[in-house]
Predict the 3D structure of the following.
Amino acid sequence: MTRYSPIRDYALVGDCHGAALVSRAGSIDWCTFGRFDDAPMFCAILDAERGGSFHIRPAVDFTVERGYLPATNVLQTTFWTASGTIRLTDFMPVGRLPGASLHDYVTLCSPSVLARVVEGISGTVGVTVLYDPTTDYGGHRPLLTAMESGVAGSDGSQLRSSLAYQVGDRGATTEIEVRAGDRHELLVYPPRARDPRASVGELLETTVAFWREWTDYIRYEGPHRDAVVRSALALKAMTYAPSGALVASPTTSLPEAIGAGRNWDYRYCWLRDSALTLYALASLGYSGEASRFGEYLLLACHASYPRLLIMYGIDGEPELPERTLDHLEGYAASSPVRIGNGAHDQTQHDVIGEVLDWAHIQHVLGTRLGENTRSFLAELADRAAAEWHRPDSGLWEMRGEPLHYVYSKVMSWVALDRACRLTGSRKKKSNWRRAADEIVQAVHSDGVDRSHGTLVQAFGKPHLDAALLTIPFTGFPLAPDVFERTVDAIVEDLGAGPFVYRYRCPDGMQGEEGAFLICSFWLVDALLWLGRKQEAKQRFDALLRAANDVGLFAEEIDAASESFLGNFPQAFTHLALIHTATLFELEDQHGLDAVRSDNATRARRLVGATAGPLALWNAFRKSGRIGRFRSSKESQALWASRSPASP
């Protein structure tokens, strides 16, 4: 384990195309360019020996403090040594496409490079640089050649730098003395990268302007703004700009439990995760991401028609065959390393409900749903009506026997309820309402443990499931006393301090997993819904303290040690944080009834109804923030990609 940095020690940089993880020790141990699901250039996080990394760090003992430049995904790490101090800045350049319309922050441009800047702050510090790229997920190392302008790889990759390197069997290295006032710039180009034709300083200026302009749209001004902004930035970084897809996480196979085999590839677009993410962003005032995702959704579902899959590739690919990479030992020797995801063709009935609820939110916020979209939604509702009574694999993607999961039944009801509000003929709506009533009867009859008066995970099964915590927020008719007993039972059986496990029943996999962070936020939401605000606030504050030093969360956490587990960072966790923070704001401003409304009503309250782009632009103009838009647009031309880089 000592060869691997704790997952908690990583920070994310990205350009809405690919992403990199930077450790507290200055090592980039994961990095994909251009596509989240591409083979990484560095993946030492999955195999410390074979994976390859790019580290810049003092050659002597040091202490570290780091953080993002405010309202950006630009990371700065400060190293203190006995002889001096240096600062390392890491970012992946990104900006709006030249010619994009005023409020278009989804049509983006990136040269798909990684920039690192070393600056001397005080004294003199000896610094070690190791550049060790790999290909084929650590399967091969390209032949490196030291050049006057840096290092060239036989695969077409480059490190552009003015430093002098020595090439060995394990990458290119150099040792330098960094004095106060020194500045060294390093640019990593993957094979077939495009030359930005700009200085690193210009790239940094444009990237900072882009992120800050985007965060200026956030309407949340509550007491947890810093955490909300950081979560929103993480979610935005996990959008794939070319298509509008959102990945669940930019990594694969970080274990949910050390050595248990619970390692999955999350670099794909789950319809459920995306719908929930877009609700979180909509509640902050964003609409462009939702519009782009709507286009992606129709294209992806057309590719798999008549099947509706639970996830697709980031370009809408319907097939995501799962395979293991046996040459990699996995994080902390936790094999296997998987790429692809075998759960992509599972049946999960809740997905239809999440998609239709998302469409209802967009409709309420003022988005016009075209005829093609309405026809597609009607088809989904017909499917929900026809299939709700069948067992499925559930939202947790159990790899065992399908069951009649209560959460799946409730979300099938959501699909039918929202369809009746959005589309359909009188006959269709009559059929949908009839099916919705049948679901309510079934859940009340078979989804409640009569001896305890609590909801159960699945019909005929006594187990609890943290997903039950979300049911009242859908508008599903449920007696408050049943819900409160369910919440208390989940605290007792699935709780561990401020954290909550998903379930404790067999799931077809070996070993145990950590507490699930989205479920921990769901419990806060449920307590607030019940009016137990002080209890909810105490838990929320404890969860916020569990973030790492730069405000990021993984999928899971070890309840005892608070070590992060699972892929990192995790969209599920960050969207849940935003949802919880906005619920507190709603309760403060509008009372408990506002919390107890449905998602669309809550989103509309949070954005102050649909003021529209013009009103938002006028607000920026009055606030004096308009200058940022102008400076960013002018600077884009300085680095817009024009030609492939050459060694």
Remarks:
- The longest helix spans residues 426-446.
- Residues 609-647 have pLDDT under 50 and may be disordered.
